[in-house]
Amino acid sequence: MTDFERGNEEDWVGRPSKSQRKRDMVALQELGESLIELAPEQLGRLNLHEDLVEAIRFFHTLKDKEARRRQQQFIGTVMRKIDPVPLREALEELDQLRFQQAEAFHQIEIWRDALVEGDAEVLTELVGRFGLEPQQLRQLARLAAAEKAAGKPSKNGRALFRLLRQSFEREQALD
């Protein structure tokens, strides 16, 4: 009969089960995989442990599928030394920022498309909101509409989008 069977359960109290430890390790590996997907400048903003940054950089140099898999497991091992809570919070903030940027991009597309279609209300709103010149907006929208009707690439549509994006980003920087 083993010690555990004789009643030494107090040695096991508060200690996570083997299954729970494995789930925790898999969660850390998944967190490491999400770090691998980040761009180098995003990684730089996270203030990661140097060993982890080095392991992630090394992962990107590997070509062999099996070597990449082993490196991902190693990244999970390195992750055990790090408190994952602040890291998860930072990744959530990055996801939120990406979502906000995508929302802004879509809004700017909507404004551009409305201007190209000749929506005067949107023109008035953008002139008031960003202080843009109405004549410049009308001219770019008119040229973009002509390009669209002719089936040509929309050089002026892209210029209109850039103008709106720069104005929007300037407004966001002031907030």
Which blocks of ≥5 consecutive residues have pLDDT under 50? none
Separate helix tally: 8
The shape, in one word, is elongated
List the helices and strands in order.
Answer: HHHHHHHH
The helix-and-strand class reads mainly alpha
Straight-line distance between termini? 70 Å
Mind summarizing the main beta sheet?
A: none
Strand content: under 5%
Radius of gyration: 27 Å
Q: Residue share in helices?
A: over 70%
Q: What can you see in these coordinates?
A:
The chain has 175 residues and is mainly α. It is built from 8 helices and no strands. It has helices at 18-36, 40-45, 50-61, 65-79, 84-116, 120-130, 134-150, 155-174. Helix 1 crosses helix 4, helix 3 (50-61) runs antiparallel to helix 4 (65-79) and helix 5 crosses helix 8 (155-174). The longest helix is centred in the middle third of the chain and has 33 residues, at 84-116. The mean pLDDT is 87.
Which key phrases capture this entry?
175 residues, single chain, elongated
Layout of helices and strands, plus pairs?
Blueprint: H1 18-36, H2 40-45, H3 50-61, H4 65-79, H5 84-116, H6 120-130, H7 134-150, H8 155-174
Helix pairs in contact: 1-4, 3-4, 5-8, 7-8
Describe the structure in brief.
The protein is an all-alpha fold and 175 residues long.
